[in-house]
Write a structure and sequence with these properties.
The structure holds 2 protein chains of 2 kinds. Chain A is α/β, with parallel strands linked by helices. Chain A has a domain at about 40-60 and about 85-230: P-loop containing nucleotide triphosphate hydrolases (Rossmann fold, 3-Layer(aba) Sandwich), CATH 3.40.50.300. Chain A is about 30% helix and about 25% strand. A 6-stranded mixed sheet of chain A has the order 6-7-8-3-9-10. A 4-stranded antiparallel sheet of chain A has the order 2-1-4-5, covered by helices on one side. In chain A, helix 6 (about 185-200) links the parallel strand 7 and strand 8. In chain A, helix 3 (about 110-120) crosses helix 4 and helix 3 packs parallel to helix 5 (about 155-165). The longest helix of chain A has 16 residues, at about 185-200. The radius of gyration of chain A is 18 Å and the shape is globular. By secondary structure, chain B is of the alpha+beta class. Chain B has 2 domains: about 20-70 and about 280-414, no CATH class; about 75-245, no CATH class. The two termini of chain B are about 35 Å apart. Chain B is about 55% helix and about 15% strand. In chain B, strand 7 (about 195) and strand 8 (about 200-210) form a beta hairpin. In chain B, helix 3 (about 35-75) packs parallel to helix 13 and helix 11 runs parallel beside helix 14.
């Protein structure tokens, strides 16, 4: 299927990527995989435990190297690049949102957000304003100086999203972002993710939650290390061309 | 597809950084996020460095104190040797009976007295004349003029010292050292106890505790010079000599003038000499003390280093999630490693600073209590935080390496 308009720009392109845990015994966690995520897309990856979701996330987030194949981010082959270059891409092009938030408990919300700016080498004088802007974007400007222990689960995850957004990455990668949240908070958070997507963010969400997956333009199922594109489930967005 | 060259990456994606000010603030935040643990870790280095400074300082102070005492003795002590008797074929004493008074007339003399060791073929001192209690003890017997007891600086425990009267009349009296008196079963002088020297009874008139310049008096028996001459004759093996206590700095001049003042008729029979230098002894004592104490301080430092290494390693394992997060945010392995290294180095430096301060306070407390003069090489105090930082750096190397080698995906799962 093709659509009119300007050609879409891939943010991520996986070509024949495999991953094998060395063991012993060796286990192939990801079979030869091809995947393209375009700029502005909202893609969900679902699958049962042990299906290879985390392996795929680690490869897409440059937290691990593929056994074979190439991974391009913004057209740059980073699959086998030296760690120095992969770290640079993580700092500037990828924003991570984790299931367990990974907030530093002894730092305030704004300090947690500013941590991402350290490695991206954002000038110090601009950091606080940019962090405050990111917190405002997720609706937490008034909680900027609260410690994570004083925040609800949903607020903590929004701080984590602000941290992921603060460096204006090409890709927002969310690993079970609602896994530790109740239904109401999950609803609020999916609303926020939708809002970010409408503003142009590229979202790659790994989730068990069918509600969260249902909001994506594309849903990709993974089972036994193999990806399968699934039909859209009532998403308001048009499915992009493969 | 574009290949990722270094140049292209620098053009398209700037490398991730950890600036020095960020490193400092991140390391400080790392230390302060668990202040209790940081304090406990710091305690190990603090004790090590504190012990090091205190031990070195106490060793230096003690050495200085020894040196000070030796220097005082050296500067206030002179001897006159009976060289005439040494060259004579027959035993003799070339000091005249009034030698003490003649020496006292020299300017700068505080007290002076003649003495020699009385030699017996076998142990000669006993508490009883006969019977099983008369077992003789090998106590040193010293013949001394009354001035000798003053010159030697003896401290009297009980009774009295013999005087010119005893000397002039060659009285059979004796002064005992405290340990000698205890050995002979004499605890009180009220009953005018007697001892026997070579079978000759002597009345014990005094017990002395210590003699600063002639320690042999502390453990033996001292009798008047004239009595010794009457009973046993002049010394046969060791010649008589005179000990002179002088005012500070007068020892050398007094030693030069004494032979003429004592024997103006034939000064060549006598030879004066100032006390020998104690510098060599002081150096040896200082070196021995320093070697021992520095070894102990070194062990304390190693214990501190092991403590900091252990705690930092535990921190690395505990903070695996944080390490994974930092890597996900763009930190390179070296950024993580250097942060942990900075934390351990800072801990060592703070430990060194506090330890040095406590070490100095310890030295001050001891010296105030003992009325000593505190001595400490200022380089030690300056070097202590540097040494602490070096210990922290070395101790942090392995944990920092472990932290930098953690795979981000693994670290995030922990």
């Amino acid at each position: 299927m093709t659509t009119g308009g300007p050609p879409r720009e891939p943010v991520i392109r996986l070509s024949s990527v495999t991953y094998t845990y060395r063991g012993p015994p060796p286990v192939q966690a990801l079979k030869p995989t091809n995947l393209v995520v375009y700029r502005g897309e909202h893609v969900a990856i679902t699958g049962p435990s042990g299906s290879g979701k985390s392996t795929l996330l680690n490869l897409l987030g440059l937290l691990d190297k593929p056994t074979n194949g190439t991974i391009e981010i913004d057209g740059i082959d980073v699959g086998a690049a030296p760690e120095r270059q992969r770290a640079a891409v993580r700092a500037h092009r990828i924003g991570f949102v984790f299931q367990s938030f990974h907030l530093m408990p002894y730092r305030t919300s704004i300090e947690n957000v500013m941590l991402a700016q350290v490695y991206a080498d954002e000038p110090r004088r601009r950091r606080r304003a940019a962090a405050m802007s990111a917190l405002a974007q997720v609706g937490l400007a008034d909680r900027a100086y609260a410690l994570p222990t004083a925040l609800s689960g949903g607020e903590r995850q929004r701080v984590a999203i602000a941290r992921a957004l603060v460096n204006r990455p090409s890709l927002l990668m969310c690993d079970e972002p609602t896994g530790n949240l109740d239904t109401t908070t999950t609803h609020e958070l999916t609303g926020l993710l939708e809002s970010l997507h409408r503003e142009g963010a590229t979202l790659l969400v790994i989730t068990h939650n069918p509600v969260v997956a249902g909001l994506a333009q594309r849903v990709i199922a993974i089972r036994d290390g193999e990806l399968t594109e699934q039909p859209p489930q009532g998403t308001p967005h048009a499915l992009p061309d493969p | 597809m574009r290949s990722l060259t270094h140049r292209r990456l620098r053009g398209d994606v700037p490398p991730s950084h950890l600036r020095l000010h960020d490193l400092g603030s991140e390391a400080l935040a790392g230390l302060l996020q668990r202040p209790g643990r940081s304090a406990l870790t710091l305690l190990g280095v603090m004790l090590g460095i504190g012990s090091f400074v205190a031990i070195v300082g106490i060793a230096q102070t003690a050495s200085g104190q020894i040196g000070k005492q030796f220097n005082v003795l050296q500067a206030t002590q002179a001897y006159v040797f009976d060289v005439g008797a040494a060259q004579s074929s027959a035993p003799t004493v070339d000091f005249p009976p009034n030698a003490d008074a003649r020496a006292d007339r020299i300017h700068g003399v505080v007290a002076a007295g003649v003495y020699w060791s009385v030699q017996f073929k076998q142990a000669a001192v006993s508490a009883h004349a006969s019977g099983f209690l008369a077992s003789k003890r090998p106590l040193p017997v010293t013949a001394a003029s009354p001035g000798l007891l003053d010159a030697a600086g003896v401290k009297l425990v009980s009774g009295t010292l013999f005087t010119q009267f005893h000397e002039t009349n060659a009285q059979d009296v004796a002064v005992l050292g405290e340990s000698a008196a205890a050995g002979l079963g004499i605890t009180s002088l009220e009953s005018q106890p007697a001892i026997f020297i070579d079978g000759q009874p002597f009345t014990v008139i005094g017990i002395i505790a210590s003699s600063q310049r002639l320690p042999q008096l502390d453990v033996g028996v001292t009798v008047p010079e004239s009595t010794a001459l009457r009973l046993w004759g002049p010394p046969t093996q060791e010649q008589a000599q005179m000990l002179i206590h002088t005012t500070l700095g007068a020892a050398k001049v007094v030693a030069e003038q004494a032979p003429v003042a004592i024997r103006p008729d034939n000064p060549a029979l006598l030879k004066g000499a100032a006390a020998p230098s104690a510098a060599g002894l002081q150096h040896n004592v200082s070196t021995s003390l320093n070697t021992l104490f520095l070894t102990l301080a070194g062990i304390a430092l190693i214990v501190g280093a092991v403590g900091i290494a252990n705690t930092t390693l535990v921190a690395v394992l505990e903070r695996a999630g944080e390490i994974g997060l930092r890597r996900a945010l763009g930190a390179r392995p070296r950024h993580v490693g250097i942060q942990f290294l900075t934390e351990s180095t800072a801990l060592g430096m703070f430990g060194g600073l506090i330890g040095a301060s406590l070490g100095v306070l310890t030295i001050l407390a001891i010296t105030v209590y003992r009325h000593w003069t505190a001595l400490l090489d200022p380089r030690i105090v300056i070097a202590a935080p540097v040494a602490g930082a070096a210990v922290g750096l070395l101790a942090g190397l392995y944990p920092a390496l472990r932290a930098s080698l953690l795979e981000p995906a693994d670290a995030l799962r922990r």
